[in-house]
Specification:
Elements: E1 2-6, H1 12-21, E2 25-26, E3 29-30, H2 38-51, E4 65-72, E5 75-83, H3 88-91, E6 97-101, H4 110-125, E7 130-136, H5 140-148, E8 152-156, E9 160-166
Antiparallel strand pairs: 1-4, 2-3, 4-5, 5-6, 7-9, 8-9
Length: 168
C-alpha cells in the first residue's frame, strides 16, 4: 500500500539511510546531509529538520518546510518536501515542493503518485492560489510527473521550467 508519512522518529533508520545516500545535489534537489553518521542524524539532523515545520528563532527569510516520505508496503521509496509559503526567491526558484525517488524505484510511477499525494497535503498548507514547482529541463521523468498532476509551464530559464498547479 502506498502512503506518505511525515518525517518521524519511528522510521529513523530508513530515513537516515535515504537522506545520507542522496547526493548533495541531484536533479536540483539539495541535500546537506550526505554521508552523515547515524548518531549525528538521529541526535542533530532529524530534530532540526522536524523543527523546520514549526520553526523557532529562525531568520525572517526562513520558510517553514515539512518533510514526508513515500512508502510502498514498508519500503521507503522517496522523499517529498513542502515549503509552506513562498519568498520572492522561491517563486522563481525551488517553489513549494521538492522531491526525489530512489534510483532503483524510478520509472515505476512513484514520482507521479507521490506528487499527487503531496499536492493534496500542500493545497491545505500553502496560501498561494497555485502550487509552484521547478524542474530541470533535462529531467524528463519529473517533468512528465508534474504535467500528469495538472501543471502548466508558467515560465523558464536556461536550465529549468517553472511549473504551476492550480489548488482547485
Amino acid at each position: 500500500m502506498l502512503e506518505l508519512r511525515k518525517m518521524n522518529y519511528e522510521d529513523v533508520l530508513e530515513q537516515w539511510e535515504y537522506v545520507t545516500t542522496l547526493p548533495a545535489n541531484e536533479n536540483g534537489l539539495t541535500n546537506n546531509y550526505e554521508g552523515v553518521s547515524f548518531d549525528e542524524y538521529k541526535e542533530r539532523v532529524l530534530p532540526e529538520l522536524m523543527m523546520h515545520e514549526n520553526p523557532v528563532n529562525m531568520p525572517d527569510w526562513f520558510v517553514p518546510e515539512t518533510f514526508y516520505y513515500l512508502w510502498d508496503d514498508g519500503i521507503l521509496i522517496g522523499e517529498f518536501r513542502i515549503r509552506h509559503r513562498l519568498t520572492e526567491a522561491l517563486k522563481t526558484g525551488a517553489g513549494h515542493i521538492g522531491y526525489s525517488i530512489k534510483k532503483e524505484y524510478r520509472g515505476n510511477g512513484y514520482g507521479t503518485k507521490g506528487l499527487a499525494m503531496t499536492l493534496e497535503l500542500a493545497k491545505a498548507i500553502v496560501p498561494e492560489e497555485e502550487i509552484y514547482l521547478r524542474v530541470q529541463k533535462d529531467n524528463i521523468p519529473s517533468f512528465r510527473a508534474i504535467i500528469a498532476n495538472g501543471a502548466y509551464i508558467a515560465g523558464e530559464d536556461e536550465a529549468h521550467y517553472l511549473m504551476r498547479i492550480s489548488k482547485e
